[in-house]
Amino acid sequence: MEVCESIVCPFCGQASEVAIDTSVPSQRFTTDCEVCCRPFEVTVTCEPGEILGVETSSD
Hints:
Elements: E1 2-8, E2 15-21, E3 26-32, E4 39-47, E5 50-57
Antiparallel strand pairs: 1-2, 3-4, 4-5
């Protein structure tokens, strides 16, 4: 099940939405900011249908 979650770029502070597949308990992926175009890492922990935690980091 996919759930949309708001994340914030650690470089410029721009908020954006990402779709998270909550059937995967622990995820780490890189995405680019829509405003400053810099890549950053997103770490997510989930239970089916629920996001337990989201962290963003610049490295």
